Amino acid sequence: DVLAPLTRLEHLNVRETNLHNIDVVSQFTQLRYLNIHSNTELSSIAPIQHLTTLETLIARNVPIGEQINYLSNLTSLQRVNLRNTGLTEFNVLAGLMAQGALQDDLQRGVVASVDIRDNPVSAYDGDASHVYQVLLPYWGNIGEREPFLLTLGVFSPVVINEFMSSNGFTLLDV
After folding, report:
1. Contacts of 57 (CB under 8 A, 6+ apart)
2. What one-character-per-residue DSSP string does 77-90 give?
3. Do 131 and 111 contact (CB within 8 A), yes or no?
4. Which of 85, 138, 165, 169 falls between 20 and 30 A from 15, CA-CA?
5. Burial label, 137 (beta-carbon count in 10 A; 0-12, 13-18, 19+)
6. pLDDT digit string (tens) for 136-161?
7. How far lies 74's CA from each of 53, 77, 79, 81, 129, in Å?
8. In the predicted structure, residue 102 carries a pLDDT above the cut 60
9. What is the pTM for the complete model shown?
10. Any bridge partners for residue 114, and if so which?
């Protein structure tokens, strides 16, 4: 309620403030930067959907999960930190990228930044390939991206099938 009169606010950092709701941010239609990092008790991120001028969203450690759809209108996004937010799919992010958000635009001096590490994308039988597949066409046009490479497919464990030792003599490997 203290923030309500600040309707022309452009930058808001409420990192680690133990917020339970962010309803007031829907009034900040000129907001360009929002940091809600580590507000783990947030019940909903729905008010963010109205922030169409938002360029930076830092929501690391915020339990977004299924609420990712509230980000679909944020076509001005250039930087997003969604590390450890419970995301299991990235269709919304891919949709934003298809519209030019979260992509480098060197003519305008924009270097995009996306961090999606530590999300349970491998919850589907250990195979994250179908989850990351939607991001592949856009991932290379993000200057600052984490993970740098998207893991595709199921990795088999490394198996050593040969062991060599020597007692001081030269062994020939034929």
Report:
1. 34, 36, 48, 71, 74, 77, 79, 80, 81
2. --EEE-TTS-----
3. no
4. 138
5. exposed
6. 999 999 999 999 998 765 444 445 55
7. 7, 6, 11, 14, 26
8. yes
9. 0.84
10. 80, 145
- In one letter, which amino acid is 146? E
User: The tokens of 1 are what?
Assistant: 């309620």
What is the C-alpha to C-alpha distance for residues 155 and 159, in angstroms, rounded to an integer?
A: 12
Q: Tokens in use for 80?
A: 């997003």
Query: Which residues have a Cβ under 8 Å from the Cβ of 174 and sit 6 or more positions away?
Result: none
Q: Any idea what DSSP says for residue 9?
A: -
Sign of the four-CA dihedral 162, 168, 173, 174 = negative
Residue with tokens 């919304």: 92
Structure tokens at 76: 């001005």
